[in-house]
Design brief:
This protein has 562 residues and is of the alpha/beta class. It has 18 helices and 18 strands.
Length: 562
């Protein structure tokens, strides 16, 4: 699969334009999608070829590149390393300001994420939805357990709306509608949802996507150029200042001199299994499907560390509880390769391998995954019955887990009908199991039948009483397992991206351990830190992507104005 094909197939709304993809079990192929440059590109091997020390503990030692090895020197005002979500928003802002900009990427370009979180956009204001800033900031502080710089959240809160307004205007030029995904809370949930998501309605045929729109706009400014298949090897330091980067092209090493600044936005290290196991052994034990963008192997963070920057000390990732595995599999990347199980985030009855319920299933997406770590096999089992679609609508979910149209007409990521087709594909693959009795279902899933029957009887009793005295799940998110056929699937985590990165200030400048600024070095997106810790607040829809694009655009504008 080419990078362009992959980019189209991963576009959120064109992902399953036809249900036949999943009915045939073809979703399995997406787990291994990667551009050609990433297929055989082991980051340690590639760095070793440049003379970098990859045998020492992370991050190793930088490569030594002499002037006589350089086959080309490029002069530019602004260097952007990474042509994904952050890099393209930065390139557009720089181009509009007339700032001479070079964007390099080691592949043919990244995937632009949808679901952009913002506050006080035009669309949000038109919907009548408002967010109390103090309540929101307190929630973000709680999610991070205090391990964050709240001043960064303040910048996003104040600046994100203007970024989304700009994007809405740009998309309109290409005939694309941007939706604000808004639905009123009809019930009182355990955890508040913040309707911050804004998502483009891309053509169902995949003929257009965010990468193409943003790259086209940046190039049309006349100030921005792109170099693909050009990996960055390390940053260039002069007098404790970053003045550009060493890159590698087909003919050899390239020296890129950036007069005004260098922005690192290479997407974190979610595709680097070796580094994930070193820094996040807990995380690698609770996910089995990796949807991090190909090429996100820690190159940018490593280069910043070589330049003297500080990295977050708590290492964590954004995970969704949306990976199915075979009925005899356990959790963790070393045990099995999972598949997308989109409705895993719905608050179904969920049990451990002893057939016992062990948590409140109505939480944020990764809470149950962290709870899995103390359960047998680091995994849980989702259970539902023939009336599942009725209960899915009753659950009144928001954000990307919603399966039904939003109150303002915005379409969900995937409709319930598409999810039903996804489930059919997983059933055909043998991940989802179907049975006419609970005892039969228990046998197919490797669960003790007596314990599972007892758990389901208790669950159905709670549903009938409209109360969950055991774990406190909201009444509107209770569902019985009563009407055959019954369904179940072993469920674990899906990796989206890493969240720990380089510590930055409110201008996106990289900081050393003593808090001083590394002049000339800027970081955004999953390469940047001081923002999240341990868990991702996914009930603030699109928060991570919104943070990325807000800071990317702001950094480029500030550099252009300096």
């Amino acid at each position: 699969m080419s990078t362009d094909q992959m980019r189209t197939s991963l576009s959120r709304r064109s992902f399953l334009a036809g249900s036949s993809l999943l009915a045939a079990g073809s979703l399995a192929s997406l787990a291994g999608c990667a551009p050609k440059s990433a297929e055989s590109a082991n980051p340690d091997e590639a760095l070793a070829e440049t003379g970098a020390d990859t045998t020492s503990p992370w991050p190793g030692e930088p490569p030594v590149i002499s002037d006589d090895e350089v086959v080309e020197t490029i002069e530019t005002d602004f260097l952007v390393i990474g042509a994904g979500t952050g890099g393209l928003f930065a390139a557009c802002a720089a181009g509009e300001a007339g700032l001479e900009t070079l964007v390099i990427d080691k592949t043919n370009g990244g995937v632009v994420r949808d679901d952009i979180g913002a506050v006080n956009s035009r669309l949000q204001q038109q919907s009548g939805y408002t967010i109390d800033k103090q309540a929101f900031m307190k929630d973000m502080y709680h999610y991070a357990a205090g391990q964050c710089n709240m001043a960064l959240h303040h910048v996003w809160f104040e600046r994100s709306g203007e970024t989304v307004d700009w994007y809405e205007n740009l998309l309109a030029e290409y005939g694309i509608t941007l939706w604000h995904e808004h639905a009123e809370e009809k019930n009182e949930p355990n955890y508040p949802h913040w309707a911050t998501g804004h998502s483009p309605a891309w053509p169902a045929d995949g003929s257009l996507n965010g990468f193409e729109v943003l790259k086209d706009h940046a190039e049309k400014t006349g100030a921005v150029s792109f170099r693909f298949q050009t990996p960055m090897r390390s940053l260039i330091m002069e007098d404790d200042r970053v003045v550009g980067a060493w890159a590698e092209g087909e003919e050899g090493f390239i020296r890129i001199n950036a007069r005004k600044g260098t922005l690192v936005c290479t997407g974190g290290y979610g595709r680097n299994d070796k580094l994930m196991k070193q820094l996040q052994p807990h995380t690698t034990s609770i996910f089995s499907y990796n949807s991090a963008q190909p090429g996100c192997e820690g190159d940018g963070i490593r280069a910043c560390l070589w330049a003297g920057a500080k990295m977050d000390e708590t290492h964590s990732s954004m995970l969704f509880d949306r990976s199915s595995v075979a009925p005899d599999a356990l959790g963790g990347i070393d045990n099995t390769e999972g598949q997308v199980f989109w409705m895993g985030s719905q608050p179904w009855l969920k049990v451990n391998l002893n057939g016992e319920r062990f948590c409140n299933e109505s939480g944020t997406y990764d809470y149950i995954l962290h709870a899995d770590a103390s359960q047998p096999g680091n995994i849980h089992v989702c259970l539902w019955d023939a009336d599942w679609m009725t209960y899915a609508e009753q659950f009144d979910m928001h954000g990307c887990s919603r399966l039904f149209e939003f109150d303002n007409g915005a379409p969900p990521n995937f409709t319930a009908d598409i999810v039903a087709a996804m489930n059919d594909g997983l059933l055909e693959m043998g991940h989802i199991q179907q049975a006419d009795t609970i005892e039969e279902l228990a046998e197919k899933l490797g669960l003790p039948a007596d314990a599972l029957v007892e758990t389901i009887n208790r669950n159905n009793e709670n549903y009938d009483n409209g109360n969950d005295p055991d774990f406190g799940k909201e009444p509107f998110r209770l569902s019985p397992v009563r009407k055959p056929p019954f369904y179940g699937v072993r469920t674990t985590g899906a990796m989206l991206c890493t969240m720990d990165g380089i510590v930055v200030n409110t201008h996106g400048q990289a900081l050393r351990a003593d808090g001083t600024i590394i002049e000339g070095l800027y970081v955004t997106g999953n390469d940047s830190g001081a923002y999240y810790s341990m868990t991702y607040p996914n009930l603030a829809t699109g928060h991570a992507c919104g943070r990325t694009v807000t800071f990317a655009r702001m950094i480029a504008q500030d550099i252009a104005a300096s």
